[in-house]
Design goal:
By secondary structure, the chain is mainly alpha-helical. Helices cover 59% and strands 0% of the residues. It has 5 helices and no strands. Helix 2 runs antiparallel to helix 3 and helix 4 crosses helix 5.
Length: 107
């Protein structure tokens, strides 16, 4: 969620949890910012807000969201390691909703 504001003060990129599923959109936002296309950068950032929000749920943390997203997208992610609990249906449902809103899943 801080990438666009940090770009405005001189940052040049990002290492982030949601980049596991939204790297293309983040690249678009960064490219728009570098071209001084503030309107496009802001629009892409707004589109990504649900990705930023789903990274931490009431019962899960960043790693859980990333693993769920990779699993839903058909990428190998492996199980969570202790002390994190296994992925549950709430994590998968929340992440699936975000991925669907970004047009990254079918159906």
């Amino acid at each position: 969620a801080l990438t666009l504001p940090l770009l405005a003060v001189g940052a040049v990129g990002v290492v982030g949890v949601c980049t596991h599923w939204s790297a293309g959109l983040l690249a678009d936002m960064i490219a728009a910012h570098h071209k001084a296309d503030v309107d496009t950068a802001r629009a892409v950032n707004a589109r990504l807000i649900p990705s930023f929000d789903v990274e931490v749920g009431a019962t899960w943390v960043h790693t859980s969201a990333a693993k769920a997203a990779l699993e839903i997208l058909g990428q190998p992610a492996g199980p969570l390691r202790l002390p994190l609990p296994p992925l549950d249906d709430d994590v998968r449902a929340a992440v699936r909703s975000v991925l669907g809103g970004l047009g990254l899943t079918r159906g």
